[in-house]
Write a structure and sequence with these properties.
Blueprint lengths: L13 H12 L2 H13 L3 H29 L3 H8 L5 H19 L3 H17 L2 H33 L8 H12 L2 H21 L1 H28 L5 H8 L8 H14 L6 H6 L8 H29 L14 H7 L4 H35 L3 H21 L8 H11 L6 H39 L10 H5 L17 H24 L24
Bound molecules: phenylalanine.
Phenylalanine binds next to α1, α2, α12 and α16.
């Protein structure tokens, strides 16, 4: 039972849409993850590689998602359903490949993966591209289940900061405090519940009165908090070392591994590959400019990631800490840093509030994907869908919350999974993170670009993009860059190097190949690491040769 398209709510204007989409993109990925992976991968050079991935792969795929959403006015499953041909040779080919891999694995007695791949192959034969949309809805579930646990930690830390409990003289103490906190289920589950409740309340209210309204309040707040924190960090004595580390590229530190991390993170950070942007695009009116919206969202997301680094590294260096603390950077090093500066509790409260705001606008977009599917495709009422799936995700997330460190509270699930799949990741939390970030998002991104590039076709997509985009799509790129976009002689139909044609090439060739390579690398089928271990220092006493 499908809702007629005219019943669909729309954003009130481009600003509302851009803030909502930027709200989805800007999240824990920008403020929690980006600084620490930059710290681990050598600073400035990594930032440049990340920017390249955003421009070359992220932006083109985002245009695909917005276009599919606006054209079909549907959730991801509905969008693929609307645009899929009755039968697709490419989908059959992919299905066959997966089926054969499954049979191959069975021959090696890898029962769990073998059966899973055979089932996936058969489903692809039956449902084709629609499965890519289904994957998006599943990703909404799995990502939100662990995302909201981390968001719950930030709620806990806001409470702690307000109560003045974050007095740590050294990182080791902060670390123990953090580990004890995330391993106390009563706390983490309550905080995770509060976060899910906030998401449900906003999604329950609908697109305009809920998501758009709150994005318009929360996003400027986020910006303000960030600017205040940057000023504080930059004015600390010794901040310059952090700025230098962050902004001076050292390409010696870039490895293939870090390029792939940058690519994977570009997807996660821009909320691509799982249909969040298809869903938000589906509430977009035809008068809105897809190119301009994409540019704004990408620039805002990147700006906030860069700004977060600028708020964190100078403070970390100024207080004499190293940048490579990993995932604990924000929860362990920062409270220690704040403890050493005047009004530390106040700055800590502001920081964790910032993190919470960022997580909230992303959390609602994840819940909205699932809600939109049940509203559009199953005819549910929005209220019911938001509450039921908010609760379902809460329960799944509760499992993540109680098994962050290891499996000891969920031995039976661990046992079951190990029997089926052999080795499994360290905890249920890791399993959820791994399934979504390493599998569902990259595969989703791959399928979206293949689908728009080769199945629906760039021609039809560009027809949709043209609406509302003035002559952006068709003006010669050189004229566009030269500021001559509206000059009559620069808009002839003879132009071939246009924004639209460049986008088409990226989406048909460059994005799918890059994403496929990154995916095969993350799952371990492609390995670029040098076969021999890197040269070790020569033994001290080497017998003379010859
Ligand atoms: N983009 C969000 C972040 O950076 C995470 C997210 C991923 C949100 C996928 C929605 C969909 O934190």
């Amino acid at each position: 039972m499908n809702n007629p398209p005219e019943a669909r709510e729309h954003w009130s204007n481009s600003l509302g849409f851009i803030l909502a989409a930027a709200g989805s993109a800007i999240g824990l990925g920008n403020i929690w993850k980006f600084p620490y992976i930059t710290g681990e991968n050598g600073g400035g050079a990594f930032v440049l590689v990340y920017l390249l991935c955003i421009a070359v792969i992220g932006a083109p795929v985002m245009i695909c998602e917005f276009t599919m959403g606006r054209h079909t006015q549907r959730n991801p499953v509905g969008a693929f359903k609307c645009l899929s041909p009755r039968s697709s040779r490419l989908a059959h080919l992919i299905g066959l490949g997966i089926l054969l891999s499954g049979i191959f694995l069975l021959c090696f007695q890898n029962w769990g993966w073998g059966v899973l791949l055979i089932a996936a192959g058969l489903l692809i034969f039956r449902y084709g591209w629609i499965l890519a949309g289904v994957m998006g809805v599943i990703a909404g579930f799995t990502i939100l289940s662990f995302y909201s646990v981390v968001a719950g930690w930030t709620i806990g830390y806001v409470f702690k900061a307000v109560a003045g409990q974050l007095h740590f003289a050294e990182v080791a103490v902060a670390k123990n405090h953090f580990l004890a906190f995330i391993d106390s289920p009563a706390w983490t589950i309550s905080c995770h519940f509060i976060f899910m409740l906030l998401c449900v309340l906003i999604v329950y209210k609908g697109v305009k009165a809920g998501i758009e309204r709150w994005s318009k309040i929360l996003m400027p707040l986020l910006f303000l908090l960030l600017v205040v924190l940057i000023i504080r960090a930059l004015t600390l004595p010794g901040a310059a070392a952090g700025v230098r580390f962050y902004l001076t590229p050292d390409f010696g530190k870039i490895t293939t591994g870090s390029v792939l991390i940058a690519l994977g993170h570009a997807f996660f950070s821009l909320s691509l590959g799982m249909g969040a942007m298809i869903t938000y695009g589906s509430y977009m009116g035809r008068e809105q400019n897809i190119f301009a919206a994409t540019l704004s969202v990408v620039v805002l997301d990147t700006l906030v990631a860069l700004m977060a680094g600028l708020a964190i590294f100078p403070a970390v260096f100024a207080q004499g800490f190293g940048p490579d603390a990993g995932p604990g950077l924000v929860f362990q090093v920062l409270p220690t840093v704040f403890n050493q500066i005047p009004l530390g509790a106040f700055w800590a409260t502001l920081f964790f509030l910032l993190l919470l705001v960022a997580a909230l606008t992303s959390g609602i977009s994840l819940l909205e994907v699932v809600t939109a599917y049940f509203v559009d495709e199953r005819g549910w009422k929005r209220h019911r869908a938001a509450v039921v799936f908010g609760l379902a995700i809460f329960f799944l997330g509760a499992l993540c919350a109680i098994s962050v460190a290891d499996w000891h509270r969920l031995e039976w699930i661990h046992h079951l999974l190990t029997r089926i799949f052999g080795h499994v990741k360290d905890s249920f939390f890791d399993v959820m993170d791994n399934i979504s970030s390493n599998w569902l998002l990259p595969l989703g991104g791959l399928f979206i670009s293949l689908f728009v590039g080769w199945i629906w076709g760039t021609k039809k997509a560009v027809d949709e993009i043209r609406q509302g985009s003035h002559n952006f799509a068709d003006v010669h790129l050189v004229s566009l860059l030269a500021g001559l976009k509206d000059d009559p002689s620069h808009n002839s139909e003879l132009h071939v190097i246009t924004l639209a044609s460049v986008w088409g090439i990226f989406i048909r060739f460059i994005s799918p190949v890059a994403v496929l390579i990154a995916f095969l690398h993350t799952i371990g089928w492609l390995d670029f690491r040098p076969k021999t271990p890197p040269a070790e220092p020569p033994p001290i006493e080497q017998p003379a040769e010859k």
